[in-house]
AB hydrolase-1 domain-containing protein
Amino acid sequence: MVLESFLVGEGDVPTVMLHGFLGTGRNLRSLAAAWSAADPSRRILLPDLTGHGTSPALPANSDLYSMARDVVDTARAQGFQGPFDWVGHSLGGRVTLAASLNVPEAVRSVSLLDIAPGPVPGDLSESGKVLGILLQAPAQAENRRAMRAELTGRGLSEPLADWLLMNLVTEESGVRWRFDRQGLAGLHSRVNDTDLWTAVERKDRPPMRCLRGGRSKYVSDADVERLVAAGCPVETLPEAGHFVHVDAPQAVLAWLR
């Protein structure tokens, strides 16, 4: 399946950057542009993952492995040949690890942004809390302001509400959600339950590294110990939360370079 995507940079080093759950490729546009400006050798693909943004809807029982294949199909359609560098935030990082297992010929290196390979406990999943509020919201509303009020009235912060509103489609009767909320709920459960430690701990894996936010709980100290023992270095940005690329963009750029 070919996904909606756009390219940043005109270099000859193929690179894929993948967003997190409920996001789109636009979430990483600023980071990609800064990276391309600092390293013109990069040609960076930013897709909307399957079921996200304006990409095709989720097929039944989609999982991390099928999503990884969709990313590879999209990269090939854009002219990417051979293996390429993968950078993934949150869900995007888990798709990246799945790609290293399922389509290893397309993976030259893996850079994880605040995500660990193990299953994500439900009480640590910020995306799960946002999803719960999203599922309570109506399928459509008179306008964006009305839908924003529905979200904030259920306890969602204004910045997160505005972020979700990027997924609204405007029609004559008002606005509606672009994505399949129930399909994403099923996907969320499947991808969070997947154990991907094999991707890191096998002997024939590509180079891997991880950057975590010091204020985030997604990569625990135990995860760090296990990652480092497997030869996957971990760097911590003390003041950053889960969205490391938003909280500390210059530090993330320096780490990527």
